[in-house]
Amino acid sequence: MRIALERPDQPEVLALVDALDAYQKPLYPAESFHGIDLPTMLRPNVLFAVVRDATGAALGCGAAVLQEGFAELKRMYVRPEARGRGAALRVIAFLEQELVARGVHLVRLETGTLQPEALGLYARCGFVRRGPFGGYGPDPLSVFMEKTLPPPGGPGAPACG
Q1: pLDDT tens digits, residue range 4-20?
Q2: Per the database record, which ranges form the N-acetyltransferase domain (predicted)?
Q3: Contact 16/77 with Cβ under 8 angstroms?
Q4: Which of 12, 34, 58, 82 is the most exposed place for a label (fewest CB within 10 A)?
Q5: Sign of the CA dihedral 80, 81, 86, 91?
Q6: What is the third-level CATH fold of 2-148?
Q7: C-alpha span between 9 and 38 (Å, rounded)
């Protein structure tokens, strides 16, 4: 597997985002769905990572939206047939490295209560629960989490991966 920052407007990558939406949208009412659209993903403050297999096929993706004082993890998805091979862990670890290189040391996220696999993944990566942040309000279907990233080469939160 290889991971790189890529444009999200590639057809194969858009298919990943569409698959994520197809999975999440039936789980939650519209007011509890917090995905970001393509124009947002194309903004300069968004790091969009794609993990590909040896043939170059896109297996998964994830984004980090740089905000004032933190980054928000968004659009994490791995194709069902590619799960269990560490792709999601690698995407998160890659994004964390990119953030630290840019001087960002706090990562936050919102995920849904109906996604136990995601909750487990984030906990394994060192994310801890917190209250709503940014523009989010309280939502019984949302779980808010964060993780402090260590400085390069320094001690800190467990690495994901």
Answers
A1: 999 999 999 999 999 98
A2: 4-150
A3: yes
A4: 12
A5: negative
A6: Aminopeptidase (3.40.630)
A7: 7
